[in-house]
Amino acid sequence: xxxxxxxxxxxxxxxxxxxxxxxxxxxxxxxxxxxxxxxxxxxxxxxxxxxxxxxxxxxxxxxxxxxxxxxxxxxxxxxxxxxxxxxxxxxxxxxxxxxxxxxxxxxxxxxxxxxxxxxxxxxxxxxxxxxxxxxxxxxxxxxxxxxxxxxxxxxxxxxxxxxxxxxxxxxxxxxxxxxxxxxxxxxxxxxxxxxxxxxxxxxxxxxxx
Length: 209
What we know:
2 domains; about 30% helix; alpha+beta; 5-stranded antiparallel beta sheet; single chain; SH3 type barrels
């Protein structure tokens, strides 16, 4: 689930060694949209944290590599982001780390006419996840069958993320209502101008041709 299309898999193979050398783990690579498309690289440190400075640092390291390898035809935007609190679960072991928390899962091919599951993580073993479903049933889903999986934002999840240092200890109502992922998109043509403005936001369009 970290990468699905041929291009995403190629980008993942390309950027992962660089990210690991910097102490980051790649959570997911996605190419979305069309005018122009956005290449999202989601990453985190081994402790699950990722702030704006980390995103900017990784973006500046990966951008020249992507320019040189040119895996995507035409213009696109590069976005480096954190997983956020209601994070996608993409790797073996992700579900085990968040056992007991609420999750939504989608599989590629229906089982008993069902492709979407909503429940609580009961465990992870042998390449599969055990779910206690909100409708009262249970399900064991192989990781290899999943196309999407993400945690559901709840008070319990917020508390767990705070305890792990993956969310601020105090959150105002506006933040609690949104929980936007930390993300950085950079336009290297405008980078020098942005650096001359101390109060400028760190996110601008990163266009490639």
